[in-house]
tRNA (N6-threonylcarbamoyladenosine(37)-N6)-methyltransferase TrmO (Labrys okinawensis), 164 residues
Amino acid sequence: MVRESEIRRNEVAVIPPEPSDAGLIFIGRIRTPWTSRLMAPRQGRPDGPVCRIEIFEPWQAALDGIERFERLEVLYWLHLSRRDLVRQSPGDNGTTYGTFALRSPVRPNPIGTSIAMLVALEGSTLLVRGLDCLDGTPLLDLKPDRTLFKPIAPEQPGDRQTQA
Ligand code: SAM
């Protein structure tokens, strides 16, 4: 069940340590049809609605070449999430699981990831399907889907698969 910010039966919250600043930069903003956590899908779908990823300056030059990839990994900051739960009850039924065993938006560093289908690139805005975040969610990063990406640099010894 989708939560707002409540604590449920048997859930465990902790007092997090002071943040150590990782120096994250919000490189853009995601525009979606969802304005409430209760309405957003739990995971994005490739046939979901077209959403817009707006890239801020000075990062627009970093989009060069991205249209070669039909699927992108999108990383975003789930900015409305609480960050202090170590055990959570997704079903709100008293059964709890460790946060790192879940894809819940509630985590110490609320980073969400989705594989998005690239529909179009319009200037500095990407049109994609496959997202599940609220309108206005800050964007952290974009990468080609790893299953489509071939490294441009020469192979390294550790790249080779070891034979069993
Ligand atoms: N696909 C991502 C992942 O697996 O890392 C996120 C999955 S999370 C279960 C998706 C849910 O997070 C949505 O259904 C919504 O309830 C919630 N959510 C979406 N955007 C959010 C935001 N900006 N802040 C807090 N919660 C958000």
Observations:
- The two ends are 43 Å apart (CA to CA).
- The mean pLDDT is 94.
- Residues 2, 37, 40-43, 78-81, 103-105, 112-114, 132-134, 137 surround S-adenosylmethionine (CB under 6 Å).
